[in-house]
Amino acid sequence: MGVGESPEIAATAKSTGLSAPFAILLWKIRTHGKLESKVTRAIPPLIQTDARLVRMFEPVQFRLNSRKAARYAGENRGSLQLEESKMRCFRSVLALFGLSAALLAADPFVGTWKLNVEKSDFGNSRTAKSGSITYQGNGMGCMYIASTVFGEAEVERLQIPVEFDGTAHEGRLGNRRATFVSKKIDDNSYELVFRDKETSVVTPTFRYIVSPQSNTLTFIWLSSGGGKPALTLVYDKE
Asked: Going from the N-terminus, what domains does the chain have, and what CATH number goes with each?
């Protein structure tokens, strides 16, 4: 046993076949689980000379790398927490979009409807040649887009929001300014109630009814005085 060597170091050298410097190095690692930085930096060039040393020091390198990873995680804990927060927010947004998509898919009005001229009753009005109604979900209700074709250059268009929160919107009905409010009757029907902008008198009421069984949409124009509907138009779901 050399000067300054402990029995433990001598036993390490004997059991491993290492020379004293390497035996001391390995004993320190096994005993203390850590090395001074200057000794740690010297490990790679030393162990590259002997395959036995490479195998012996692989666990040491793993521990050193693990400590570095733990230190990095500690130093960047704020960033990691921010990323986790972003991921939670992202998942919440996806869930919200999924819920919105499910609600829109369940809305019986959403989609495009084609006018069935033969099944419709135009009353005293001109008979249209074709037409369509499209409901586009917008998160707060629907956007109603309608077009009715009477001739090659005669097309009537109407685009209005359908919202059931009591909001009054402005527009024109014929040659007069009017306000209208959407009122839900049930899941398959609603009304648009129009009032003259100047007099506040209820003019016509538009009623829309979806029949899931026949896959049709019926539009009924009800006059303010009651009686027979002025128009009853039937649309088929495309």
From this structure: 7-75 (no CATH), 111-237 (2.40.128.20)
